Each structure stands twice: as C-alpha cells, then as structure tokens.
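Lecture notes, unit on protein representations.

Consider one protein chain, 728 amino acids long.
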Amino acid sequence: MNIPGFQIERRLGLSGGAELYLASQIHPYKRIVLAVARRGAAEAPEALRELERHPALKANFRHPNILHVYRVGAHAEWLYLAMEYIEGGDLSENLAWGMSLDRLINAFCDLCAALDHARGKGLAHGRISAANILFRSPSEVVLAGYCSVAVESDERDQRLPQDGASAADHRDDLFDLAQTLYQALTGETHGLLPSDVNGQANAPAKLPGYFKTLQPLLDQALAVDPNRRFQNGAAFREALKAVARTGALADLSIKTAAVSSEEIRTVGEAAGLSSREPIRDEGGAFGRSAGFPRWLLAAGLAAALIGGGVYLVERQSWRLVAFMAQIGLAEDPNVQSAWVAAQALREDPLQSLATLVASYRRVVELDATHGQAKQAIAGLADQWRQDIVRALAQNDLGSAEAKLNEMTLVFPDDYSLMDLGRQVNNRRAADTLLASTRSLLRSQGMSRIPAATVAIQAYQEIVRLAPGHPAALEELAALAEHYAELAREAAGQGDVDGAIVYLERAATADGGLPILGVVREEIQQASRARSAIQELLQQAGAQRARGLLVHPPGGNAAELYHRVLATAPDNGIALQGLNEVTSQLLSKATRMFEGDDLSGVERLLGQASAAGIEAAALLEIQTRLDLEIEALATIGQKLEEAGRLLAQGFITEPQEHNAVAVLRDVQRLDPGNARADELLGQAAARLAAVAQEAFAAGLPEPARHYLDLALTVTPDQGEWRSLRESWQ
C-alpha cells in the first residue's frame, strides 16, 4: 500500500475495522499514525466527503487533551486519517510500568476537561476505556477515539443535538470515565451499565481501604440513578482535585505488572534500599502495589507478586527501566528510545537535515532539559553552515543551494542564513554571467576589442560578486596575456597606436601582469610612440577645450588621456588632464542638478563610467543623483496626497495631516514648486468660498474663521482682506 505524502514504516495493529500503521509525513516532516480502511475506488470519494463533515475534524474541535487528527484523505480505494503519534503508551501500559496516584488523578482531571470541550462542540465519545487513554508524556494525557475511518455501528458515537437536549450521552461518557478509574485502582471492572437504573445488585463499587478518600467520589460518579451522578466534567474534575488537595494520596503509586526478584534486587540496590517482608494494607490483607508509599516501592516490590490486583505478564527489561524512571532511578525510557533513535539516524550519512533535527527535537519535546539533544541541534546547524561555506569555496553551487534550502526549511529564523543566501545568490549570478561571457568570447573571439572590453568588465563584476572566483581570475589573466602579446606585436610592427590600445586592454584585465612592464618599455622606446603620445595629449587637450570630456566614445578627452597612461603611467600631463576632466565633470553635474536635468546627469554618469573616470567621482555624482531621484519621488507622492486630501475636504484639519501641511512640506523640499503653489491657491480659494457661504447663511463667526484660514494660506489677497474688514 502506497499513500502519496507518507512513508509507511510498519504495521501497528487493527482498531475498529481500520489498519493502523506507523508512518512519516514527508512534508513537513513528522511521525504520525495512519488509520486506513478499504472503501472501494467508487465509494471512497463519497466516504471522504462524509468523513470531512465529522465534527471531530473541525478546526474548532482541537483540544490539548484530545488526540490530534492532522489530515483526512482518500487514495484509490483507501480512506485514511493521519493522526498524532503517541509514544507514551495507553493507561494500561502506564499502570504496568508504574504510576503515582497524583499523576493518575491529574490525568483524569484533564480527561474531564476534554469531555466538557467535546460536549461543547456537540460530540459524545461513547467508548471510553483504558485503551483510548494515551500519554504524550508522563504529565500529558490524550483521549483518542472521537473519529474513525471504519464503519461505526455504535449508536453512542453520534453527534449530539446542538441544543444540548441529549445530555445523558455526555453523562454516559463521565460514567465510563469513572468505570475506567475504578478499574485502574482495583484491577476489576464495575458491572453497572450507564443506563441501568435497576442494576442495584451491581453497586456500590467498593475500593480497598488505602483508597478510602476516593470512595465518596466514586459513589457519586457510579451512582445507579443518573441524576445523582456528576452532570458535567467540571464537577467531576473539581471533586478529583479536592481529593488531591487533601494530600492523602501523595505517597501512593500503582504498578500492575509482575516484577521478578532479580529486577526487585536491581532496583533495591540502585536505590540503596532492601526489604525482606511484604507490606500489608491497613486491613491486614495484602493490597495492590498502589497501597505502598512511593519511596518503599524500590525496596518492597515483592508485595506486588502476591497483591490482589496484580496482572502477570512476561518479564521485559524495558518495563523495569520504565518503573525505575517512574521512581526517579533511571531516565524516562521514551526519552532514551528517542535519543537512541536520533543518534542512530545521525550515523546515517544519507539522512536529511530535517529528519535529523526532527529526531532530536522529539527528544527535547519529551525532556525539555535534555542538553545533549539541544547541543546536537545546534551542532547540526553549525555543520550545515560550514558545509555551505565549504561548497561555495569549492565552487559546488548545487550542494551549497541544496544545503541552504534544507537549513531554510528547518531553521527559518536563523539570521545567518541571510548572509549565506546572499553569497549563494551572488555565486549563482556570477556563474550565469561567466557562462554568458564565455559564450560571447567563443562567438566574437578574444582579439576583438569591443568583445574583450565587455568580457573584462563582466569578469571583474564576477570577482566582485564572488571574491576570488578562480575561473574569472584565470580568464582575466588569459585576456591580459593575450592583449599584452598583441601589444608587443603591434609595437614591433611600428603600430604604436594599436600597441597602446592593446596595452590598455591588457592593463585593464590584469594590471599586475609582469609582462606589461616589458610591453610599456618597448612602446616607450619607440620613437613613433613618443610622437603618438604627444599627439594623443594634444587631441585630449583640444577635446577638453571643446567640452568633449567623456563623449563621443573613443574620441573624448578622458579616453585619450587613458591611452597615454596605458603607455606611460607616470605621464604628468595626462594625469593632470584627467584630474581636470574629473573636476569639469563634477561642475557640469552640479549645473544639471540645479536645472533639474536628472536624465542628463544619468546620461553623463554612464558616459563617464565608460570613459574610465575614477570611481570616487562617479560615486559622488551617483549618490547625489540617487538622493535627487528619491526627493522627486517623495515630492510626487506628497503632491498626490495633498490633491487627495484637498478633494476630500481635509484642507487645514486634522492638524496633524491636512492638505496645506503636506504642501508646506513640498515647498520645504522643493522651494518654488509650481504645482504646490497651485494647490495652495486652490485650498485658499476653497476656504474663502466656505467663509462666504457661512456669512451668507448668517454664521459670521465661522465665516471670519474660514476667511482667516484662507488669508493664512495666501496672505497677499487684498480682496479677501477687505472682505474680512467688512465683516467686523
């Protein structure tokens, strides 16, 4: 059987006509129990719709002491429920392992609350027994059995009327709960049925003497007349708590499983205690082990072998460990089992991070103080971070992404993932750019200047995104060597201009390449190189005088000076000329900003970058451009907001947010803004119009108030001032 979304581990058994399987939900990962029933491929959809309407599957039915149902579905001919996996055993198993009376009473108090919750949602249980009472942990009880995929014939498992008229069903659940408590205390089943008002012979249910404080409570809970019983879970719960508050049961425990003499001796030695004599109850007869003080159980377990309510079971070491955990002499076996399972998974190199962390988190769920499990979770997070960093260093982007995705799912609140994610994204962008650049060079060839220029810029961007990127550095070095050789060839052939261009490309690709010094020396020694440099300097000066600082491409002053410096890096005229070009660019950008020519500034910035202007000057212009663009966006938003407020009539009120106040903000950001002045004029005109309407309506005081507001906005309106004086 294969149900999508789940991985079945093993069969657990049969319950109410449904097969139970231990399984793992794949996403999000959790261990669950699958209850599966065959309905037939044709019947399954209708059965699923009917099941989905069950009140126990509604979102508002959820309660901490009722078994959680995560999901209901159908696949092929199978109908299934995905339910919470409870590892702490049922009530009978916990009694066999050993339970304190305090723990038992607290568990039944929580069950009362669960029954009241279900009653409030219109649902009765109808099958309460020790098998349906499960334990998530020693202190957390769960009631199972409200919903099943099997066909139910028990009329008591039906939804109650919403008007609460059938309260007897709920009292039947309370009666069954009391029956289960009686059986837990005595090992016997009380024979009275919930509705058997004539069953006088079956009552009362007498408890052993050491449970005498619980006798009145059970007399009422199991009364023959339903009207004398507890009418709701809250009343039953309060009665249980009242008994617990007396402290009479504080030192009592129950253990129903037989224990061998060897196990008794082991526990006794571990506790440092011993006993040769069985302990009797107050009536003189041997009682259940429930009658013994908890501290004597470690030394007096022999009495359990002959106690009146002990059930003989085969000896198993895990039961001894469970009992030792109950009296504080050993670790909880559930915690031990979860820890061993987690450690075993850790040894499997194929396990996912989600599986490993979930296994350790399960240990922490069972024991919140388990330091080793917490350290293991932290260690797994550190290991995965290191694996991501190592994969990036090895240029294994696939592994880095896979590890990062795992960590993001398992540790979504880990802030270190932001930086790792940025590194992975940068490496992905770098690899994409590397592939496209290689493709460009394959199609265009390394010797074409335009293609080489683009490739060099791309490789440098890759190194910025992924510092130390080996492939980008290697290919930059290859380009530098290629153009250095071209420069030497050109210089040897007397093509000084060509040699300079090639040398410039080589220096841009890798300025530290040793051969560049040789190439420069060869070019500088050439007589034609000298004249070429002079000619370049004259051309650069002429272009600068004409204002062609960074445009047109290939013939502007900045690029001409760079050509000179590629051949003679220490040429003072070229260095000074570049400084002058940079200064003129900054002045030109300033004038453009003052004229609100932001598109011109942006165009100038692109030209300057292409011409090789130093980064500091470009950053200064870019920063101011970004601020101006942001200011314009803010002004536009405020003008739009002011127009909306004006249309809605919020001219000067409310004081904190009105049209006039917003427009004043615009004027502070952009003095002389024509649109702001226009809207302020409209606002003042609206106020003046309202003032005149008020005066005409015989409301002189409001009229003067609104006219004063209008004059506050636009004080230079002489007509309004005359009108105001006439209203005195």
